[in-house]
Amino acid sequence: MNVKELMTNLEAKHPGEKEYLQAVHEVLESVEGIYNQHPEFEKAKIVERIVEPDRIITFRVAWVDDKGTVQTNLGYRVQFNSAIGPYKGGIRFHKAVNLSMLKFLGFEQTFKNALTTLPMGGGKGGSDFDPIGKTDAEVMRFCQAFMCELWQNIGPDTDVPAGDVGVGGREIGFMYGMYKKLAREYNTGVLTGKGQTWGGSKIRPEATGFGALYFVHHMLNKAGKDLKGLKVAVSGFGNVAWGAALKATELGAKVVAVSGPDGVCSIENGMSKVMIDYMLELRSSNNNVVAPMAEKFSGVKFTAGKKAWSVKCDLALPCAFQNELNGDDAKELLANGIWAVAEVSNMGCTPEAIKAFQDAKILFAPGKAVNAGGVATSGLEMTQNAAHISWPAEQVDAQLHQIMEDIHTACVTFGTEEDGHVNYVNGANIAGFMKVAQAMLEQGII
Ligand code: GLU
User: Fold this and answer.
1) Which of 161, 212, 276, 278 minimizes the number of CB atoms within 10 Å of its CB?
2) Domain with 263 in it
3) 43 in a structural domain
């Protein structure tokens, strides 16, 4: 493999798909060395095949808003890779959704899912539908219209969507309702992140954030440190940020910053449990702002237009969106003494930010390892659905913790450099890639 040549060809084929090209570039750079030691991969053109999705389904979603006006959105499902299991990955509703974004997410998902140790391929879907400011009834009508198009392409052994940015329990419920009506089957395994009275796994809502903190715990332990007393900055206030803030606090850290598109709330004494719970209220208000937290609680200071990365902390946890932490943010964090960063959002840091952290030799772990607990618990939900049983929370949590520990071990195995430093980016990319590549090789040219 020659990364430069491959990237030139890919850029010519997919001009302007910048998130997708960024994600591919990062993985190829990590795996180039080991790939070139495997002539059988080169012969089977594994890399040329692995960077292209198996197929992409695109459709129009027409629905009627509360004023009676017809709205038209675009819907997609990118079925990226099914070498190790049915396509699996979330659905994102956000006004900026486009094919490049979903291809990057589907590509990342393929390797993330391979890291979980569970048999899941990679997929991602979504729409440019903007949930901000929409009523429940509008969200329901949109979800129903979206599922009317998608339902024939998914199934428990075909493709299993779940939530992502803009899609939580409410949306999964509406989509499942329409799926069930169309398919005339009570097939809970078709979607994960369901309500817990009708097939959803215990701990699934917490899983991405909890899993991230279990990973961080092992990363810090390996470096001879721990979470107690650490100051943590978190971006976002959705499900993922909530779970991360909750577990960080339970493990003895102090969440001193939480941010949204409107600005940052700094909390000198760290978030209390009621403040953490309030994050979910902010999310469900559909307004996408954190400012009300400062009005509601004393000891919270809101600064408009600033990110969580402007607050002095030991550990940064980007939990919102891709490329939310850039080179300048990294410089500011480093100047303020940061010494660990774990991406909880997918591709939360720009390449410049990652380089700055790696050059500074601080601990840095990538999203596909850190946030894999969400999809791993979706995998556990699929298992429970297939067996028509429901496991207690303690059992799911214990399995989630074990999976995160195993992912950490895989990163260390594949990412330890000669000087003993662990390059978690390389470790995660190589471990995930090798598993998928080997499966593709064994399944022939398809
Ligand atoms: N959207 C989540 C992710 O990025 C979860 C996917 C799932 O549970 O299938 O991994």
Assistant:
1) 278
2) 205-361
3) yes
